Amino acid sequence: MARGRPEIDIDRCKGCALCTEACPQKILEMSIETNNQGNSYSQCIDESKCTACTMCAVQCPDSAIQIYRIVQEAK
Amino acid sequence: MSKTVLMKGNEALAEAAIRAGCTHYFGYPITPQNEIPAYMAKEMPGRGGCFLQAESEVAAINMVFGASGAGARTMTSTSSPGMSLKQEGLSYLAGAELPCVVVNMMRGGPGLGGIAGSQADYFQATRGGGNGDYRSIVLAPGNVQELADLTVDAFELADKYRMVVTILGDGYLGQMSEPVILPEPKVNPPAKPWAVSGNKGRKPNQVMSLRLTPEDYLEKHNIHLQELYSNVEDKEPRAEQFLCDDAEFIIVSYGTSSRIVRKAVKQLREEGIKVGLFRPITLWPYPMKELNELSKKVQKVLTVEMSAGQMLEDVKVAVNGLAEVDFYGRLGGAVPESAEIINIIKGYR
Amino acid sequence: MEEKLVYTKPESLTEGKTHYCPGCGHGIIHKLIAEIMDEMDIREETIVVAPVGCSVLIYNYLNADGIESAHGRAPAVATGVKRVHPDKIVISYQGDGDLLAIGTGETIHAANRGENITVIFVNNAIYGMTGGQMAPTTMPDQITKTTPYGRDVADVGYPIRACEMINTLAAPVYIERTSIHDVKNIRKTKKAIKKALTNQKEGKGYSFVEVLSTCPTNWGVNPVTAAKWVETAMMPYYPLGVFREEKEKV
Q: Is residue B283 located within the same domain as residue B141?
């Protein structure tokens, strides 16, 4: 059950791949496609596993990742 | 009420700077200007200013860069070898268009040289030893009163044009004591909205000389600087003409040399020889037009300086072939003799 | 189900992309400074002094007043600025050459005077801007453009440890070395810089934070490998930690 999701600005991403190492869930991978700068970009391959730990965003040198945390509605 | 006091040149300059609104002084000890930092160290704390002895002349000029960039009236002082160290900083100040006053009390060179006064930094001051196409205003006091008065002018000119203003004195002027009426200027520095001061209520300011793209940016900036310098060349040249009106020969000299020339001129006049002293007070912008006009009326122009012939080159440009240009100089801090000057002029007849 | 934005680009970082290489540590450190400027609400009272090096354009990336300095002279420029505006936050941000080669004199003396400024030293063991020459912090045997056969300590000496050197002076109030090679250490770096800026805000004195950083391009490796190299090659020589932390103004 997803607890959050990363929103990645693919044109801001420089393809350094540091986020893929940082993610404890290992749900970030570099794309095969390229962005408008000609480099691969980071993409989340399984949002259901995201815990909104923000580690990928903290690691990112280019502020290319925003993190949303899912706020559960009270039942 | 202004009264006359007896003061050492270096100290009169420092006192005038404080009165002119200098709030931040950064310097490093070097003979023959050590009275300036000593005076500032004693006076600044009690008068709301900042004195800081920097770790080197390089550090001092960069502290000036910071204080000027932050909007303050700031200055440093040194002597010839220290002025060499400051060249990088002067280029950066010019590129960033930061106002400041830099004092060089010249001594003999090259290298470590000597500690007596000399005039061998004329090229360094007026041609600029730092990199790039830039100019700084150069003022040449001829006595202790001018050391004080021109210091006040220096701060005004620096702020008016956002330029480095160099006060080019020498060891003799700095060390001599003369009567002086200390200036009491109205201190009203212009607003400096471009300075770094925290960007509350405005967009951030950037003080820098780096402009990476040649055509788009750096060339435009240089064209702007050249227009600024043209404007200064139009408006600010200054010179004194002493007994030049009917002169057949004129002697061009500045600073300490000019004092000896003045004595020689007076003596020659007593003997009926029509000679005058043309004394530039701004070395940049050099009073080209004024000297050129004067050259039309005279037979010969003698240049006297304590160097191997540096101002001589500007004299030749100004005279532009209208009269014969001759030169008498002493080197390494040796002082020209009025007897020698008198002989040379007598030899022209 | 609603979602809340919990991590985004700080306000004090400008919008555009930086010119830094992929994986460069500068991007991370600039971001941390910007986050702290937001959190401490000091954006409008901060003046950043830029060095000469890759981060020469830092004033384009931080949303605050910026002033350039000649190579190595940033602590002197910062001194000039701070003496004019003692109530503003003045940050001197410098690399290896700026702080430990050409600027050694200015570095030591601003620290020795205890100027109430914050110096952030980005140590990536190489000269990045000029294409990868030896720095005073280059490791023994490390290959650079000016040590193509590896740094020969018999010829050019050993790397310099900045924190340890500054720790010999009486005036500094806070000296720490951190790293940005992984998230745990990035968070520690943020704490350190925040402590340093808080010290300045409280008028405590001179603070120095050395951050071990990466230069993938000039080290000739990819960013992920570069981050690992900080841990394996740099940290044993440059130990992380607090060297000094005075509680009161010295």
A: no
Q: Distance (Å) from the C-alpha of residue C78 to the closest C-alpha of chain B?
A: 6
pLDDT tens string, chain B, 349 residues long: the values are: 578 999 999 999 999 999 999 999 999 999 999 999 999 999 999 999 999 999 999 999 999 999 999 999 999 999 999 999 999 999 999 999 999 999 999 999 999 999 999 999 999 999 989 999 999 999 999 999 999 999 999 999 999 999 999 999 999 999 999 999 999 999 999 999 999 999 999 999 999 999 987 776 999 999 999 999 999 999 999 999 999 999 999 999 999 999 999 999 999 999 999 999 999 999 999 999 999 999 999 999 999 999 999 999 999 999 999 999 999 999 999 999 999 999 999 999 8
Last residue of a domain, one of B186, B210, B235: B235
Q: Measured between alpha carbons, how far is C64 from C47 in angstroms, rounded to an integer?
A: 6
Q: Tell me, what CATH number does A46's domain have?
A: 3.30.70.20
The interface pTM score, or ipTM, of the predicted complex is: 0.94
**Residue C171 touches partner B, C-beta closer than 8 Å:** no
Chain C residue numbers with beta carbons less than 8 Å from the beta carbon of A21 are: 182, 224, 227
Residues of A in contact with C4 (CB under 8 A): 68-69, 71
Yes or no, beta carbons of C83 and B52 under 8 Å apart: yes
A66 interaction partners in chain C (CB closer than 8 Å): 5, 7-9
d(CA C144, CA B270): 75
Taking an 8 Å cut-off on Cβ atoms, the answer to whether C49 and B209 are in contact is no
Q: Do chains C and B touch (3 or more CB pairs under 8 A)?
A: yes
In a domain, C5, yes or no: no
CATH number at residue C57: 3.40.50.970
First-to-last alpha carbon distance for chain A, in angstroms, is 17
Q: Take residue C111 and report the two structure tokens written for it.
A: 């620290």
Kindly report the pTM of this predicted structure: 0.95
> Chain C: nearest CA to A49, how far in angstroms?
16
Neighbors of chain A by Cβ distance (3+ pairs < 8 Å): C
Nearest to B51 by CA among B33, B34, B39: B39
Our CA angle for A34, A35, A36, nearest 5°, is 125
A26-33, long-range: CB within 8 Å, 24+ apart, which pairs? A28/A56
In a domain, B110, yes or no: yes
Q: In this structure, are strands C2-7 and A65-71 parallel, antiparallel, or unpaired? A: antiparallel
Number of domains in chain B: 2
Q: Are B13 and B27 in contact (CB under 8 A)?
A: no
For residue B295, the enclosing domain spans 239-348
Q: Which residue of C has its CA nearest to B96?
A: C68
Touching status, chains B and A (3+ beta-carbon pairs under 8 Å):
no
Q: Which domain holds residue C125?
A: 25-245
